[in-house]
Specification:
235 residues, Rossmann fold, 7-stranded mixed β-sheet, globular, disordered N terminus, binds S-adenosylmethionine
């Protein structure tokens, strides 16, 4: 399915945190979309909540969900480091999905599934309440201009949705290299009555050692940007 067709299947949400870019698929990515998406992908279905016990080989393992995994740098790294955890990656950009599928195959990972769709809709329609141990949001599009702030994925509605899908004690982990967005996230997340900042001072958290240095993080570093991690626990 092309990105345009996929976008056509999106439901009623009017303001989205992404625009579908017409990036060309490499031959290998196109082949991965044909051959591997049926194996490792989950079709978006707004009428079907997922049953995690039938999705993965390791049925009872905790599930972490990554939103906007890009090319899958962090997703593949986490799935390799934590074989006893199951991962769902959600991304709309088709070349990135193709690339991640190639990685899943070449690394022989059995604990990753991919959904090519808007994460807001996936969370709302397909993820059962209190089902996730972690939600990861690394280097989301910062939407720098004021008139685009409404497109930032971290909004009160997003925070409420994520909080409802996290188990008690589960963690939302965000990272960004855009200072203005970091502050925006901090203010909105600190205002949630369902999430508690892991930083006792109510500020940013230290970067966890294991967090992968993704493509977008490397770009930020080249530009001299400071990176902020924000970790919140579902209470
Ligand atoms: C700046 S990139 C960061 C990619 C990756 N996390 C990294 O650190 O390299 C943001 C990604 O989020 C994806 N994205 C934005 N909004 C999304 C949404 N609502 N659902 C799924 N993916 C989304 C974009 O397609 C893009 O690939």
């Amino acid at each position: 399915m092309t990105e345009q067709q996929n976008q056509g299947r999106l439901t009623s949400r009017s303001i989205r945190s992404f625009v579908i870019r017409n990036g060309r698929l490499t031959k290998a990515q196109a082949a991965a979309m044909d051959m591997l998406l049926p194996r490792f992908g989950i079709e978006f279905d707004e009428n079907q909540q997922l049953d995690f016990s039938t999705l993965f080989t390791s049925q009872a393992a905790p599930v972490w969900l990554e939103i906007g995994f890009g090319n899958g740098d962090a997703l593949l790294d986490m799935a390799t480091r934590y074989p006893d955890t199951n991962f769902i990656g959600v991304e709309v950009h088709e070349p990135g999905v193709g690339q991640a599928l190639m990685g899943i195959e070449s690394l022989g990972l059995t604990n990753v599934r991919i959904i090519q769709h808007d994460a807001m809709e996936v969370l709302e329609h397909m993820i059962p309440s209190a089902a996730l141990q972690r939600v990861l949001l690394f280097f989301p599009d910062p939407w720098r201009k004021k008139r685009h702030f409404k497109r930032r994925i971290v909004q009160t509605e997003f925070i409420e949705l994520v909080a409802n899908k996290l188990e008690i004690g589960g963690v939302l982990h965000c990272a960004t290299d855009w200072q203005d967005y970091a502050l925006w996230m901090l203010e909105k997340l600190n205002a949630s009555d369902k999430l508690k900042n892991n930083s006792a001072s109510g500020n940013y958290s230290p970067r966890p050692d294991w967090r992968t240095n993704t493509r977008f993080e490397q770009r930020g570093e080249r530009l001299g940007h400071e990176v902020c991690d924000l970790l919140y626990t579902r209470i």
